[in-house]
Protein backbone atom coordinates (compact mmCIF):
# COMPACT_ATOMS: atom_id res chain seq x y z
CA UNK A 1 0.00 0.00 0.00
CA UNK A 2 1.25 3.46 -0.92
CA UNK A 3 1.30 6.50 1.34
CA UNK A 4 2.01 10.07 0.21
CA UNK A 5 3.62 12.74 2.38
CA UNK A 6 3.64 16.46 1.59
CA UNK A 7 7.00 18.21 2.01
CA UNK A 8 7.83 21.89 1.61
CA UNK A 9 11.47 21.29 0.68
CA UNK A 10 13.08 18.43 -1.25
CA UNK A 11 15.18 15.73 0.41
CA UNK A 12 18.90 16.50 0.34
CA UNK A 13 19.53 13.67 -2.14
CA UNK A 14 16.78 14.80 -4.52
CA UNK A 15 17.81 14.39 -8.19
CA UNK A 16 21.42 14.08 -7.10
CA UNK A 17 22.61 13.10 -10.58
CA UNK A 18 20.91 15.98 -12.39
CA UNK A 19 22.26 19.44 -13.21
CA UNK A 20 18.85 20.82 -12.29
CA UNK A 21 18.68 18.95 -9.01
CA UNK A 22 18.34 19.78 -5.32
CA UNK A 23 20.35 23.02 -5.36
CA UNK A 24 18.56 24.36 -8.43
CA UNK A 25 15.08 23.59 -7.06
CA UNK A 26 16.02 25.12 -3.70
CA UNK A 27 17.46 28.27 -5.30
CA UNK A 28 14.25 28.83 -7.23
CA UNK A 29 12.05 28.08 -4.24
CA UNK A 30 13.94 30.48 -1.96
CA UNK A 31 13.66 33.34 -4.48
CA UNK A 32 10.02 34.32 -3.87
CA UNK A 33 8.94 33.96 -7.52
CA UNK A 34 5.42 35.33 -7.85
CA UNK A 35 2.60 32.93 -8.82
CA UNK A 36 4.44 29.70 -7.99
CA UNK A 37 3.99 27.54 -4.89
CA UNK A 38 6.41 24.60 -4.88
CA UNK A 39 6.11 21.35 -3.00
CA UNK A 40 7.25 17.72 -3.02
CA UNK A 41 5.26 14.53 -2.63
CA UNK A 42 7.22 11.71 -1.04
CA UNK A 43 5.64 8.39 -2.01
CA UNK A 44 6.31 5.37 0.20
CA UNK A 45 5.48 1.71 -0.13
CA UNK A 46 5.42 0.59 3.46
CA UNK A 47 8.46 2.24 5.03
CA UNK A 48 10.43 2.43 1.80
CA UNK A 49 10.58 5.66 -0.19
CA UNK A 50 9.87 4.85 -3.84
CA UNK A 51 9.52 8.33 -5.40
CA UNK A 52 9.88 12.04 -4.79
CA UNK A 53 7.54 13.99 -7.03
CA UNK A 54 8.15 17.74 -7.39
CA UNK A 55 5.14 19.92 -8.18
CA UNK A 56 4.08 23.52 -8.36
CA UNK A 57 0.72 25.24 -8.09
CA UNK A 58 0.12 28.24 -10.32
CA UNK A 59 -2.46 30.32 -12.14
CA UNK A 60 -1.77 29.09 -15.67
CA UNK A 61 -2.57 31.57 -18.44
CA UNK A 62 -3.68 29.61 -21.48
CA UNK A 63 -1.91 31.97 -23.91
CA UNK A 64 1.51 31.21 -22.36
CA UNK A 65 2.92 29.25 -25.32
CA UNK A 66 1.33 31.38 -28.04
CA UNK A 67 3.48 33.70 -30.12
CA UNK A 68 2.69 37.40 -29.97
CA UNK A 69 -0.42 38.21 -31.97
CA UNK A 70 -4.15 38.74 -31.82
CA UNK A 71 -4.97 35.34 -30.29
CA UNK A 72 -2.41 35.81 -27.50
CA UNK A 73 -3.92 39.23 -26.70
CA UNK A 74 -7.48 37.89 -26.92
CA UNK A 75 -6.82 35.12 -24.40
CA UNK A 76 -4.67 37.20 -22.06
CA UNK A 77 -7.35 37.25 -19.36
CA UNK A 78 -8.02 33.50 -19.26
CA UNK A 79 -6.29 31.40 -16.61
CA UNK A 80 -6.87 28.25 -14.63
CA UNK A 81 -5.56 27.07 -11.27
CA UNK A 82 -3.26 24.12 -11.94
CA UNK A 83 -1.25 21.74 -9.78
CA UNK A 84 1.54 20.56 -12.04
CA UNK A 85 4.18 17.86 -11.62
CA UNK A 86 7.59 19.12 -12.72
CA UNK A 87 9.23 22.49 -12.32
CA UNK A 88 8.26 25.89 -13.76
CA UNK A 89 11.62 26.48 -15.47
CA UNK A 90 13.51 23.17 -15.58
CA UNK A 91 14.23 21.92 -19.10
CA UNK A 92 12.59 18.56 -18.40
CA UNK A 93 9.99 17.28 -16.00
CA UNK A 94 11.58 14.61 -13.80
CA UNK A 95 10.24 12.34 -11.09
CA UNK A 96 12.92 11.03 -8.76
CA UNK A 97 12.12 7.36 -8.45
CA UNK A 98 9.39 4.98 -9.57
CA UNK A 99 7.09 6.11 -12.39
CA UNK A 100 4.20 3.67 -12.40
CA UNK A 101 0.46 3.98 -12.79
CA UNK A 102 0.08 3.13 -9.11
CA UNK A 103 2.44 5.91 -8.00
CA UNK A 104 0.94 8.53 -10.33
CA UNK A 105 -2.62 7.68 -9.28
CA UNK A 106 -1.65 8.25 -5.64
CA UNK A 107 0.03 11.52 -6.58
CA UNK A 108 -2.97 12.73 -8.58
CA UNK A 109 -5.34 12.16 -5.66
CA UNK A 110 -3.23 14.57 -3.60
CA UNK A 111 -2.83 17.13 -6.37
CA UNK A 112 -6.56 17.33 -7.10
CA UNK A 113 -6.94 18.52 -3.49
CA UNK A 114 -4.84 21.56 -4.44
CA UNK A 115 -6.33 22.57 -7.79
CA UNK A 116 -9.15 21.58 -10.19
CA UNK A 117 -6.62 20.78 -12.95
CA UNK A 118 -3.64 18.46 -12.62
CA UNK A 119 -0.81 18.62 -15.14
CA UNK A 120 2.59 17.09 -15.89
CA UNK A 121 4.93 19.54 -17.57
CA UNK A 122 7.98 18.82 -19.73
CA UNK A 123 7.76 15.02 -19.80
CA UNK A 124 8.33 12.61 -22.66
CA UNK A 125 5.90 10.17 -24.20
CA UNK A 126 4.32 7.30 -22.42
CA UNK A 127 3.53 8.49 -18.91
CA UNK A 128 1.01 6.01 -17.42
CA UNK A 129 -1.73 8.58 -16.82
CA UNK A 130 -5.20 7.18 -17.35
CA UNK A 131 -7.77 9.80 -18.42
CA UNK A 132 -5.22 12.54 -19.14
CA UNK A 133 -4.91 14.43 -22.42
CA UNK A 134 -1.52 15.25 -23.93
CA UNK A 135 -0.33 18.15 -26.06
CA UNK A 136 3.13 19.14 -27.33
CA UNK A 137 5.15 21.50 -25.16
CA UNK A 138 8.36 23.35 -26.03
CA UNK A 139 11.10 21.03 -27.28
CA UNK A 140 14.51 21.18 -25.63
CA UNK A 141 17.59 21.67 -27.80
CA UNK A 142 20.51 19.40 -26.94
CA UNK A 143 23.91 19.34 -28.65
CA UNK A 144 26.32 16.43 -28.36
CA UNK A 145 29.91 17.64 -28.41
CA UNK A 146 32.59 15.09 -29.19
CA UNK A 147 36.08 15.22 -30.60
CA UNK A 148 36.87 18.23 -32.75
CA UNK A 149 33.38 19.73 -32.81
CA UNK A 150 33.99 22.18 -35.63
CA UNK A 151 35.46 19.61 -38.02
CA UNK A 152 32.06 17.91 -38.11
CA UNK A 153 30.35 21.01 -39.51
CA UNK A 154 29.97 21.85 -43.16
CA UNK A 155 32.37 24.37 -44.70
CA UNK A 156 29.62 26.97 -45.14
CA UNK A 157 28.57 26.60 -41.50
CA UNK A 158 32.16 26.99 -40.27
CA UNK A 159 32.57 30.12 -42.40
CA UNK A 160 29.32 31.53 -41.04
CA UNK A 161 30.43 30.89 -37.44
CA UNK A 162 33.84 32.50 -38.05
CA UNK A 163 32.08 35.55 -39.49
CA UNK A 164 29.81 35.79 -36.45
CA UNK A 165 32.77 35.53 -34.08
CA UNK A 166 34.68 38.24 -35.98
CA UNK A 167 31.63 40.48 -35.67
CA UNK A 168 31.73 40.07 -31.89
CA UNK A 169 35.53 40.32 -31.55
CA UNK A 170 35.30 43.71 -29.81
CA UNK A 171 33.26 42.17 -26.99
CA UNK A 172 35.30 41.27 -23.93
CA UNK A 173 34.32 38.02 -22.22
CA UNK A 174 34.75 37.38 -18.51
CA UNK A 175 33.91 34.13 -16.70
CA UNK A 176 32.87 34.09 -13.03
CA UNK A 177 32.46 30.90 -11.02
CA UNK A 178 30.32 32.75 -8.49
CA UNK A 179 27.74 35.53 -8.52
CA UNK A 180 29.28 38.98 -9.19
CA UNK A 181 27.31 40.88 -6.54
CA UNK A 182 28.77 44.22 -7.58
CA UNK A 183 26.95 43.79 -10.91
CA UNK A 184 23.64 42.60 -9.46
CA UNK A 185 21.63 45.62 -10.55
CA UNK A 186 22.98 45.56 -14.11
CA UNK A 187 22.51 41.80 -14.48
CA UNK A 188 18.87 42.09 -13.48
CA UNK A 189 18.34 45.01 -15.87
CA UNK A 190 19.69 42.88 -18.72
CA UNK A 191 17.49 39.94 -17.69
CA UNK A 192 14.39 42.16 -17.66
CA UNK A 193 15.17 43.59 -21.09
CA UNK A 194 15.42 40.09 -22.55
CA UNK A 195 12.29 39.04 -20.66
CA UNK A 196 10.35 41.90 -22.26
CA UNK A 197 11.54 40.91 -25.74
CA UNK A 198 10.68 37.22 -25.32
CA UNK A 199 7.91 35.74 -27.45
CA UNK A 200 6.86 33.37 -24.65
CA UNK A 201 7.25 33.85 -20.92
CA UNK A 202 6.05 31.76 -18.00
CA UNK A 203 7.77 33.27 -14.99
CA UNK A 204 9.36 36.54 -13.96
CA UNK A 205 12.43 35.88 -11.88
CA UNK A 206 13.54 38.02 -8.96
CA UNK A 207 17.00 39.49 -8.27
CA UNK A 208 17.27 36.98 -5.42
CA UNK A 209 17.13 34.10 -7.88
CA UNK A 210 20.33 35.15 -9.62
CA UNK A 211 22.09 35.52 -6.28
CA UNK A 212 20.76 32.18 -5.02
CA UNK A 213 22.12 30.47 -8.12
CA UNK A 214 25.69 31.24 -6.97
CA UNK A 215 26.09 27.73 -5.58
CA UNK A 216 24.88 26.14 -8.82
CA UNK A 217 25.68 28.46 -11.67
CA UNK A 218 28.56 29.96 -13.61
CA UNK A 219 28.22 33.50 -14.95
CA UNK A 220 29.73 34.61 -18.23
CA UNK A 221 29.84 38.38 -18.72
CA UNK A 222 30.05 40.20 -22.05
CA UNK A 223 31.46 43.73 -22.04
CA UNK A 224 31.55 46.60 -24.51
CA UNK A 225 34.53 48.52 -23.14
CA UNK A 226 33.48 49.13 -19.51
CA UNK A 227 29.74 48.55 -20.07
CA UNK A 228 28.18 45.17 -19.34
CA UNK A 229 25.96 44.43 -22.36
CA UNK A 230 25.15 40.77 -21.75
CA UNK A 231 25.40 37.80 -19.42
CA UNK A 232 24.82 34.06 -19.47
CA UNK A 233 23.92 31.90 -16.50
CA UNK A 234 25.25 28.40 -17.06
CA UNK A 235 24.66 25.28 -14.97
CA UNK A 236 27.49 22.76 -15.21
CA UNK A 237 27.53 19.26 -13.75
CA UNK A 238 29.64 16.25 -14.67
CA UNK A 239 29.76 16.30 -18.49
CA UNK A 240 26.70 18.51 -19.04
CA UNK A 241 26.28 22.26 -19.42
CA UNK A 242 22.94 24.06 -19.53
CA UNK A 243 22.54 27.63 -20.78
CA UNK A 244 19.83 28.54 -18.32
CA UNK A 245 19.35 32.29 -18.74
CA UNK A 246 20.74 35.09 -20.85
CA UNK A 247 20.33 38.84 -20.68
CA UNK A 248 21.25 41.46 -23.25
CA UNK A 249 21.24 45.19 -23.85
CA UNK A 250 19.41 45.20 -27.18
CA UNK A 251 20.50 48.73 -28.05
CA UNK A 252 24.15 47.66 -27.96
CA UNK A 253 24.18 43.91 -28.59
CA UNK A 254 22.65 43.76 -32.07
CA UNK A 255 25.69 45.22 -33.80
CA UNK A 256 27.78 42.37 -32.39
CA UNK A 257 25.23 39.62 -33.05
CA UNK A 258 25.65 38.96 -29.36
CA UNK A 259 23.07 36.22 -28.93
CA UNK A 260 24.69 34.00 -31.56
CA UNK A 261 28.15 34.89 -30.24
CA UNK A 262 27.06 33.75 -26.76
CA UNK A 263 25.97 30.36 -28.07
CA UNK A 264 29.26 29.89 -29.92
CA UNK A 265 31.16 31.01 -26.82
CA UNK A 266 29.31 28.36 -24.78
CA UNK A 267 30.40 25.71 -27.27
CA UNK A 268 34.00 26.87 -26.93
CA UNK A 269 33.70 26.52 -23.14
CA UNK A 270 32.32 22.98 -23.59
CA UNK A 271 35.19 22.00 -25.89
CA UNK A 272 37.77 23.56 -23.57
CA UNK A 273 36.40 22.09 -20.33
CA UNK A 274 35.29 18.70 -21.62
CA UNK A 275 31.50 19.04 -21.47
CA UNK A 276 30.00 16.58 -23.93
CA UNK A 277 26.34 17.64 -23.70
CA UNK A 278 25.25 21.23 -24.17
CA UNK A 279 21.62 22.28 -23.69
CA UNK A 280 21.04 25.76 -25.17
CA UNK A 281 17.43 25.60 -24.01
CA UNK A 282 14.13 26.38 -25.70
CA UNK A 283 13.19 28.86 -28.47
CA UNK A 284 15.35 30.29 -31.30
CA UNK A 285 15.41 26.80 -32.74
CA UNK A 286 16.67 27.63 -36.24
CA UNK A 287 20.14 28.65 -35.06
CA UNK A 288 20.29 25.86 -32.50
CA UNK A 289 19.59 23.32 -35.24
CA UNK A 290 22.26 24.99 -37.37
CA UNK A 291 24.90 24.26 -34.74
CA UNK A 292 23.80 20.62 -34.82
CA UNK A 293 21.35 20.44 -31.92
CA UNK A 294 18.71 17.77 -31.69
CA UNK A 295 15.26 18.95 -30.62
CA UNK A 296 13.94 16.65 -27.91
CA UNK A 297 10.13 16.71 -27.81
CA UNK A 298 8.36 17.29 -24.51
CA UNK A 299 4.69 17.19 -23.64
CA UNK A 300 2.23 18.57 -21.14
CA UNK A 301 -0.32 16.11 -19.78
CA UNK A 302 -3.46 17.50 -18.14
CA UNK A 303 -6.84 16.60 -16.75
CA UNK A 304 -9.66 18.61 -15.21
CA UNK A 305 -11.45 16.99 -12.29
CA UNK A 306 -14.88 17.61 -13.84
CA UNK A 307 -15.80 15.58 -16.96
CA UNK A 308 -17.49 18.45 -18.82
CA UNK A 309 -14.79 20.98 -17.95
CA UNK A 310 -12.16 18.40 -18.85
CA UNK A 311 -13.64 18.15 -22.37
CA UNK A 312 -13.75 21.95 -22.73
CA UNK A 313 -10.22 22.40 -21.36
CA UNK A 314 -8.88 19.70 -23.70
CA UNK A 315 -10.34 21.47 -26.73
CA UNK A 316 -8.88 24.78 -25.56
CA UNK A 317 -5.42 23.30 -25.05
CA UNK A 318 -5.46 21.86 -28.59
CA UNK A 319 -5.88 25.43 -29.83
CA UNK A 320 -3.16 27.07 -27.76
CA UNK A 321 -0.52 24.35 -27.33
CA UNK A 322 2.90 24.57 -28.96
CA UNK A 323 2.99 23.18 -32.49
What does this structure look like?
This protein is an alpha+beta fold and 323 residues long. It contains ten helices and 15 strands. It has helices at 22-29, 70-74, 101-111, 155-167, 184-197, 207-212, 250-253, 258-273, 285-290, 307-320; strands at residues 2-7, 37-45, 48-61, 79-85, 96-97, 117-123, 133-136, 140-144, 172-176, 217-224, 227-237, 240-248, 277-281, 294-296, 299-304. The radius of gyration is 21 Å and the shape is globular. The mean pLDDT is 91.
Provide a compact summary of the structure.
This protein is of the alpha+beta class and 323 residues long. The chain has helices at 22-29, 70-74, 101-111, 155-167, 184-197, 207-212, 250-253, 258-273, 285-290, 307-320; strands spanning 2-7, 37-45, 48-61, 79-85, 96-97, 117-123, 133-136, 140-144, 172-176, 217-224, 227-237, 240-248, 277-281, 294-296, 299-304.
Protein traits:
15 strands; single chain; 10 helices; globular; about 325 residues; seven-stranded mixed β-sheet; eight-stranded mixed β-sheet; alpha+beta
The N- and C-terminal alpha carbons lie at a distance of 40 Å
Strand elements, count: 15
Computed Rg:
21 Å
Largest beta sheet, briefly?
8 strands, mixed
How large is the share of residues in beta strands?
25-35%
Low-pLDDT runs of 5+ residues are none
Indicate the mean pLDDT. 91
Number of helices: 10
Order of helices and strands: EHEEHEEHEEEHEHHEEEHHEHEEH
Q: Indicate the structural class.
A: alpha+beta
Gross morphology is globular
Helix content percent band: 25-40%
Amino acid sequence: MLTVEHHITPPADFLSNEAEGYAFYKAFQDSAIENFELGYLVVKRGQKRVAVVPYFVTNYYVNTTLENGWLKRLLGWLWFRVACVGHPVADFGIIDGEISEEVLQAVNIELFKLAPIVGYNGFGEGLPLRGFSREPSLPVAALEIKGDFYSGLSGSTRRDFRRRLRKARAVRIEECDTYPKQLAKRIYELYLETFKHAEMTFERLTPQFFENMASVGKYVLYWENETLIGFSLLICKDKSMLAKYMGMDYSRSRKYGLYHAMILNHIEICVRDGYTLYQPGVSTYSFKKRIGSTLIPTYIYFRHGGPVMNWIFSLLMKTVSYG
